[in-house]
Amino acid sequence: MALNKRRNNDSVLSDNIDTNFIFRILMYSTKEYDKLSFDAKLKELKQPEKYEINYTHQRLSKDSVKQANNHGCICIFVNDDGSHEVLEKLKQIGVKLIVLRCAGFNNIDLKAADELGIEVGYVPSYSPNAVAEHAVALVMALNRRLHRAYDRVRNGDFRLDGLVGYDMNGKTVGILGKIMFC
Fold first, then answer.
1. Based on the domain organization, do 93 and 6 belong to the same domain?
2. d(C-alpha 123, C-alpha 12), whole Å
3. Contact 50, 23 (CB under 8 A)
4. Please, which residues have CB within 8 angstroms of residue 39's CB and are 6 or more apart in sequence?
5. In whole angstroms, how far apart are CA 8 and each of 1, 5, 11?
Protein backbone atom coordinates (compact mmCIF):
# COMPACT_ATOMS: atom_id res chain seq x y z
CA MET A 1 0.00 0.00 0.00
CA ALA A 2 1.10 3.57 -0.57
CA LEU A 3 1.32 4.21 3.15
CA ASN A 4 3.96 1.55 3.65
CA LYS A 5 6.26 2.65 0.84
CA ARG A 6 9.66 3.75 1.99
CA ARG A 7 11.58 5.96 -0.37
CA ASN A 8 14.98 7.55 -0.21
CA ASN A 9 15.38 10.25 -2.84
CA ASP A 10 13.52 8.46 -5.62
CA SER A 11 10.02 9.81 -5.01
CA VAL A 12 7.68 10.22 -7.96
CA LEU A 13 7.85 13.90 -7.14
CA SER A 14 11.57 14.16 -7.88
CA ASP A 15 11.41 12.24 -11.17
CA ASN A 16 12.04 14.41 -14.22
CA ILE A 17 11.53 17.73 -12.47
CA ASP A 18 12.98 20.65 -14.40
CA THR A 19 14.87 23.42 -12.63
CA ASN A 20 12.05 25.95 -13.12
CA PHE A 21 9.44 23.69 -11.55
CA ILE A 22 7.54 25.09 -8.56
CA PHE A 23 6.01 22.46 -6.29
CA ARG A 24 2.49 23.62 -5.43
CA ILE A 25 0.74 22.40 -2.29
CA LEU A 26 -2.88 23.03 -1.34
CA MET A 27 -3.66 22.75 2.34
CA TYR A 28 -7.29 21.95 3.16
CA SER A 29 -9.06 22.65 6.49
CA THR A 30 -6.60 25.39 7.30
CA LYS A 31 -6.66 27.37 10.52
CA GLU A 32 -4.66 30.55 11.01
CA TYR A 33 -2.06 28.73 13.17
CA ASP A 34 -1.46 26.26 10.31
CA LYS A 35 -0.72 29.10 7.92
CA LEU A 36 1.61 30.83 10.37
CA SER A 37 3.63 27.70 11.15
CA PHE A 38 3.87 26.40 7.57
CA ASP A 39 4.78 29.82 6.15
CA ALA A 40 7.53 30.12 8.77
CA LYS A 41 8.90 26.65 7.91
CA LEU A 42 8.75 27.41 4.20
CA LYS A 43 11.08 30.38 4.73
CA GLU A 44 13.63 28.07 6.41
CA LEU A 45 13.98 25.81 3.34
CA LYS A 46 17.15 26.01 1.24
CA GLN A 47 15.11 26.95 -1.84
CA PRO A 48 11.78 28.33 -0.63
CA GLU A 49 11.12 29.81 -4.06
CA LYS A 50 10.69 26.24 -5.39
CA TYR A 51 7.56 25.75 -3.26
CA GLU A 52 4.19 27.42 -3.10
CA ILE A 53 1.66 26.67 -0.36
CA ASN A 54 -1.93 27.72 -0.86
CA TYR A 55 -4.49 27.52 1.92
CA THR A 56 -8.22 26.96 2.09
CA HIS A 57 -10.43 26.76 5.15
CA GLN A 58 -12.69 24.30 3.31
CA ARG A 59 -12.52 20.60 4.01
CA LEU A 60 -11.55 18.26 1.20
CA SER A 61 -14.74 16.87 -0.28
CA LYS A 62 -16.13 15.86 -3.65
CA ASP A 63 -17.26 19.49 -4.01
CA SER A 64 -13.99 21.19 -2.97
CA VAL A 65 -11.61 18.81 -4.78
CA LYS A 66 -11.50 21.11 -7.83
CA GLN A 67 -9.50 23.63 -5.78
CA ALA A 68 -6.53 21.25 -5.99
CA ASN A 69 -6.25 21.82 -9.74
CA ASN A 70 -2.64 22.68 -10.68
CA HIS A 71 -1.30 21.36 -7.35
CA GLY A 72 1.00 18.34 -7.18
CA CYS A 73 0.27 17.81 -3.52
CA ILE A 74 -2.51 18.35 -1.04
CA CYS A 75 -2.26 18.42 2.73
CA ILE A 76 -5.32 17.26 4.65
CA PHE A 77 -6.51 16.99 8.22
CA VAL A 78 -8.68 14.59 10.25
CA ASN A 79 -12.11 15.51 8.87
CA ASP A 80 -11.16 15.73 5.20
CA ASP A 81 -12.64 13.19 2.79
CA GLY A 82 -10.09 10.80 1.32
CA SER A 83 -12.68 8.44 -0.16
CA HIS A 84 -12.20 6.52 -3.41
CA GLU A 85 -14.46 8.99 -5.24
CA VAL A 86 -12.43 12.00 -4.10
CA LEU A 87 -9.11 10.26 -4.81
CA GLU A 88 -10.20 9.52 -8.37
CA LYS A 89 -10.96 13.20 -8.90
CA LEU A 90 -7.59 14.17 -7.41
CA LYS A 91 -5.83 11.76 -9.77
CA GLN A 92 -7.68 13.26 -12.75
CA ILE A 93 -6.45 16.75 -11.93
CA GLY A 94 -2.85 15.64 -11.39
CA VAL A 95 -2.37 15.32 -7.63
CA LYS A 96 0.47 12.86 -6.95
CA LEU A 97 0.92 13.19 -3.20
CA ILE A 98 -1.38 13.52 -0.20
CA VAL A 99 0.16 14.35 3.15
CA LEU A 100 -1.77 14.26 6.38
CA ARG A 101 -1.00 16.64 9.21
CA CYS A 102 -2.42 14.26 11.78
CA ALA A 103 -1.49 10.88 13.22
CA GLY A 104 -4.61 9.08 12.04
CA PHE A 105 -5.23 8.04 8.45
CA ASN A 106 -8.63 6.39 8.74
CA ASN A 107 -10.15 9.13 6.58
CA ILE A 108 -8.25 8.08 3.47
CA ASP A 109 -8.82 5.01 1.29
CA LEU A 110 -5.24 3.71 1.22
CA LYS A 111 -6.03 0.87 -1.16
CA ALA A 112 -7.56 3.27 -3.68
CA ALA A 113 -4.61 5.66 -3.31
CA ASP A 114 -2.23 2.81 -4.06
CA GLU A 115 -4.25 1.67 -7.07
CA LEU A 116 -4.37 5.23 -8.41
CA GLY A 117 -0.64 5.81 -7.89
CA ILE A 118 -1.13 8.57 -5.34
CA GLU A 119 1.45 8.50 -2.58
CA VAL A 120 0.32 9.12 0.99
CA GLY A 121 2.44 10.56 3.78
CA TYR A 122 1.38 10.81 7.40
CA VAL A 123 2.65 11.63 10.86
CA PRO A 124 4.21 8.35 12.09
CA SER A 125 3.98 9.32 15.74
CA TYR A 126 2.41 12.24 17.46
CA SER A 127 4.30 13.83 20.33
CA PRO A 128 3.93 11.09 22.93
CA ASN A 129 5.28 13.48 25.58
CA ALA A 130 2.62 16.08 24.83
CA VAL A 131 -0.12 13.44 25.03
CA ALA A 132 1.18 12.16 28.38
CA GLU A 133 1.54 15.69 29.74
CA HIS A 134 -2.00 16.51 28.68
CA ALA A 135 -3.26 13.39 30.47
CA VAL A 136 -1.48 14.49 33.66
CA ALA A 137 -2.93 18.00 33.29
CA LEU A 138 -6.43 16.51 33.01
CA VAL A 139 -5.87 14.39 36.14
CA MET A 140 -4.75 17.46 38.06
CA ALA A 141 -7.69 19.51 36.77
CA LEU A 142 -10.11 16.81 37.92
CA ASN A 143 -8.37 16.45 41.26
CA ARG A 144 -8.59 20.19 41.94
CA ARG A 145 -12.07 20.38 40.39
CA LEU A 146 -11.04 23.21 38.10
CA HIS A 147 -14.08 22.77 35.87
CA ARG A 148 -16.44 23.45 38.79
CA ALA A 149 -14.28 26.31 40.10
CA TYR A 150 -14.26 27.95 36.66
CA ASP A 151 -18.06 27.80 36.38
CA ARG A 152 -18.53 29.16 39.89
CA VAL A 153 -16.18 32.11 39.39
CA ARG A 154 -17.92 33.00 36.11
CA ASN A 155 -21.16 33.16 38.09
CA GLY A 156 -19.63 35.28 40.86
CA ASP A 157 -19.58 32.40 43.37
CA PHE A 158 -16.22 32.29 45.18
CA ARG A 159 -17.03 29.60 47.77
CA LEU A 160 -14.52 26.77 48.20
CA ASP A 161 -17.13 24.21 49.29
CA GLY A 162 -16.68 21.01 47.26
CA LEU A 163 -13.66 22.33 45.37
CA VAL A 164 -10.78 21.20 47.55
CA GLY A 165 -8.89 18.29 46.02
CA TYR A 166 -6.21 16.21 47.63
CA ASP A 167 -2.43 16.35 47.66
CA MET A 168 -0.93 14.18 44.90
CA ASN A 169 2.47 14.00 46.63
CA GLY A 170 3.19 10.41 47.60
CA LYS A 171 0.26 8.99 45.66
CA THR A 172 0.59 6.24 43.08
CA VAL A 173 -0.88 6.99 39.68
CA GLY A 174 -1.51 4.15 37.25
CA ILE A 175 -1.87 4.11 33.50
CA LEU A 176 -4.96 2.18 32.48
CA GLY A 177 -4.38 2.22 28.76
CA LYS A 178 -1.91 3.10 26.10
CA ILE A 179 -2.61 4.62 22.72
CA MET A 180 -0.20 4.20 19.88
CA PHE A 181 -0.52 6.45 16.85
CA CYS A 182 0.80 4.40 13.99
1. yes
2. 20
3. yes
4. 53
5. 17, 10, 7
Predicted TM-score (pTM) of this structure: 0.69
- Among 73, 93, 121, identify where a domain stops: 121
Number of domains the chain is built from: 2
Domain shared by 9 and 71, yes or no = yes
Do the Cβ atoms of 99 and 119 come closer than 8 Å? Answer: no
**Within 10 Å of residue 45's Cβ, how many Cβ atoms?**
10
Query: Are the beta carbons of 108 and 60 closer than 8 angstroms?
Result: no
- Each residue's pLDDT, cut to its tens digit, for the chain (182 residues) gives 444 444 444 444 455 455 678 899 999 999 999 999 999 999 999 999 999 999 999 999 999 999 999 999 999 999 999 999 999 999 999 999 999 998 778 999 999 999 999 999 988 777 777 877 888 899 899 999 999 999 999 999 999 998 888 888 888 877 666 665 54
Closest CA to 147 of 166, 129, 165: 165
Question: Do 104 and 58 have their domain in common?
Answer: yes
DSSP tag of 9: S
* Domain co-membership, 98 together with 129: no
